[in-house]
Amino acid sequence: MRVHLGLMATVAAAAFLGAPAQASFIGDTVTLTCVAQFPSPNTDCLVGGGPSNVLVGAGTEGSVTSGIGDVTIDVAATSIVLAAGVNGANFNGLSQILTISDLDWVGGPAIITGVNVSTSGTFNPLIGPITFTSNSVQIDFGVSGWFAGTDPTVTIDIETTAVPEPGSVALLATGLIGIGWLRRRKAARN
Question: How far apart are CA 173 and CA 170, in angstroms?
Answer without folding.
Answer: 5
